[in-house]
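Methods, example record. To illustrate the input and output format used throughout this study, we show the complete record for MASE1 domain-containing protein. The sequence lines were provided to the predictor; the line carrying structure tokens was produced by it.
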Amino acid sequence: MSLAVTVCYYAAGRLGLMGRLVVEGVVVTPIWPPTGVAVAALLVLGARVWPGIALGSFLVIASLTAPGPTTVVTVVSNTVAPLCAFLLLRRAGFRRDMARLRDGLSLVFLGGFGAMLISATAGVGLQVAKGSLDKSEFWPAWLAWWVGDTMGVLLVAPLLLVLAGPAGRFRLRRWKEAAFLGLTTLVLMPMAVLNPMSMLFLVFPLLIWAALRFQLAGSMLCALFASVLTTFEATSRRGAFLHLTDVEIMAKLQAFNGSAALTALLLASVITEQRATRRSVRRACQELAEVLEHLAAGEPSPGPPGTAESRAAPPGGHRDS
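The corresponding predicted structure is encoded as:
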């Protein structure tokens, strides 16, 4: 299992590096998929796969530069952050199916915003300690690093958890709607991202549609596609990111990715919880109806007042004198 996690972590890291940016002299990625892979692997397989995360992190770093003493600190922080996310989520009673709003909020604030403070602080702090980054440049680089790690958790981990869960029933009518949604997404999202008029807001109706009809699976796929497409356009300085400085590109990209991830994740969690509640109420009503039918089957049917049935003796055989 650990070896499989290592392969997935390394592959996700290489994909993430394709959209890297340089902020204040530090190489960062607006979306760092390995954090999502690590958190999902820990939630599905347990804490025993942490060596695979550490080895994957080391291989990603080794593919960029020659390993040195500082590599140990980076590997440790990249391993400890997902482990802390896993422990915090388990302590909060997180469910992998994310069928409750509290599960979505836990993943956002504990697994994303909270735990990823460790990797961002250790990574940027190490650059400052080495002297490769000035103290005045700490916060911009730290924010970019932290957001990249957090986006990896919010965009990648939910999708992997959905794929690792049991497959649900999918009717033919849903397939047709899913195909239409996918086609609309493939047409509308590039138009919104590539347009120099900055029409990124057109993405959000698609996210809402996907969340309402297909919950986490649909909304997270749309959000991930939109974020990846937007990230590559930002690194190429095209479309909505034309003629912007590095800081402006990173700020705009982070705002969009964060908004898309939170909209898709939290709205899908709300819809999933409501549907689960509705199913529970429907089952309870059906069970109650069955109980009433069984009770009614053992008693005489009530008749109109004054009839013989209405004057029948009560249970026990006693009748008022």
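Annotations derived from this record:
Residues 61 and 84 are 21 Å apart (CA to CA).
The two ends are 80 Å apart (CA to CA).
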